């Protein structure tokens, strides 16, 4: 599995509901191994594991899977019960409809609907007008959660045609491209995922025993999982993450395209080869410093830096702090 990191924005946003309800979040952060000092730096990142532990600690503290953002709390175990109902359905369409019907019975339900957009596409629409969600944290989390769960049910990733948001692009909107890997439309009439109708006819391939394994880290793990591999940038990241050395021409050859074509494809996704490579190096560096056990000098060498000072400069550019300071704040 490729190393991933999560922007500190999502940590701050996740804590908002608990803090608004008067809960002390210091033990929650400690349970996740996240230093309070990181919250003040917009460039800071945490690992997927830290973020998963944070979400689970918030559930324990609040006994609410909506983490204080919904109209009413959603008790622990609600998502698991929905999954148990859905996994016994014959196909994805039936599973989604059963899951949505289940949530319709609850006062804490997220208002969601499966709507036919045209014969070729369906939309999973989300209405959170009754939620108190100023950072759009709940909206983003639910969209990611239902997309990832649907893909898991049928055993293959469901490529999204488009994602609509009923609000302006937020300051952290750049993260959305990494999360969803498809065209994004802000200030739309509704918040929704759009995908091909054919996926609703695909059979559910998971069973209850697989679900128990899946739920050990879910849905928190789902919220932290980035959907790499969904687009050209994801393919480039995967090749680089597998230890392939070289620059853009070498990676383009592995993908069977010319270097100019790869450059154009990345530009169309709002990124570049250098940006993808730097994001991967940043994520690998953050993960190593959080784990510990590897010196900064060895880490710099492993990541391909000619000297530790060059790595120090790059890491400070990525996260706003030095490797040593970051490590100290996560121990």
Would you give an account of this structure?
- This protein is α+β, with helices and mostly antiparallel strands and 331 residues long.
- It is built from 16 helices and seven strands.
- Strand 5 (160-164), helix 7 and strand 6 form a beta-alpha-beta unit.
- The model has no long low-confidence stretch (mean pLDDT 87).
- InterPro entries: AraC-type_N, Homeodomain-like_sf, HTH_AraC, Tscrpt_reg_AraC-type_HTH.
- One of its GO terms (cellular component) is cytosol.
Tally of DSSP helical segments: 16
Rg over alpha carbons: 20 Å
Question: Which stretches are low in confidence, meaning pLDDT under 50 for 5 or more residues running?
Answer: none
Domains (count):
3
In total, how many beta strands? 7
Estimated share of beta-strand residues: 5-15%
The largest beta-sheet arranges its strands as: 3-4-7-5-6
Helix and strand pattern: EHHEHHHEEHEHEEHHHHHHHHH
Helix content: 40-55%
Structural class: alpha+beta
What is the gist of this entry?
It contains 16 helices and 7 strands. It has 331 residues and is an alpha+beta fold.
Q: Keywords, please?
A:
five-stranded mixed β-sheet; 16 helices; 331 residues; Arc Repressor Mutant, subunit A; 7 strands; alpha+beta; single chain
List the helices and strands and how they pair.
Blueprint: E1 5-7, H1 8-20, H2 26-32, E2 45-47, H3 48-62, H4 78-86, H5 92-104, E3 111-118, E4 121-127, H6 137-154, E5 160-164, H7 174-180, E6 184-185, E7 191-196, H8 208-215, H9 220-224, H10 232-241, H11 248-255, H12 259-268, H13 273-291, H14 296-302, H15 308-319, H16 323-328
Parallel strand pairs: 5-6
Antiparallel strand pairs: 1-2, 3-4, 4-7, 5-7
Helix pairs in contact: 1-3, 2-3, 4-5, 10-11, 10-13, 11-12, 13-15, 14-15
């Amino acid at each position: 599995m490729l190393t991933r990191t999560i922007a500190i924005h999502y940590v701050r946003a996740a804590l908002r509901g608990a803090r608004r309800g008067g809960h002390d979040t210091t033990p929650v952060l400690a349970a996740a191994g996240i230093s309070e000092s990181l919250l003040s730096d917009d460039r800071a990142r945490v690992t997927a594991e830290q973020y998963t532990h944070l979400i689970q600690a918030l559930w324990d503290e609040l006994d609410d899977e909506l983490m204080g953002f919904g109209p009413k709390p959603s008790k622990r175990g609600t998502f698991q019960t929905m999954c148990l109902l859905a996994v016994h359905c014959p196909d994805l369409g039936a599973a989604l409809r059963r899951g949505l019907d289940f949530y319709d019975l609850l006062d804490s339900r997220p208002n969601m609907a499966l709507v036919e957009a045209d014969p070729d596409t369906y939309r999973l629409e989300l209405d959170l007008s009754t939620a108190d969600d100023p950072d759009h944290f709940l909206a983003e989390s639910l969209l990611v959660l239902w997309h990832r769960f649907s893909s898991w049910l049928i055993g293959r990733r469901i490529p999204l045609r488009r994602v609509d948001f009923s609000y302006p692009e937020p300051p952290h909107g750049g993260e959305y491209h990494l999360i969803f890997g498809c065209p994004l439309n802000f200030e739309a009439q509704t918040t929704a995922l759009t995908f091909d109708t054919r996926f609703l006819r695909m059979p559910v391939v998971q069973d209850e025993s697989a679900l128990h394994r899946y739920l050990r880290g879910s849905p928190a793990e789902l919220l932290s999982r980035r959907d790499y591999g969904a687009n050209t940038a994801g393919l480039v990241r995967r090749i680089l993450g597998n230890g392939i050395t070289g620059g853009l021409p070498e990676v383009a050859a592995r993908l069977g395209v010319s270097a100019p074509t790869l450059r154009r494809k990345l530009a169309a996704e709002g990124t570049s080869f250098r940006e993808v490579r730097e994001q991967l190096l940043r994520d690998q560096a953050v993960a190593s410093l959080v784990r510990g056990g590897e010196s900064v000098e060895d880490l710099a060498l492993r990541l391909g830096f000619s000297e530790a000072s060059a790595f120090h400069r790059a890491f400070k550019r990525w996260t706003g702090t030095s490797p040593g300071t970051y490590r100290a704040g996560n121990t």
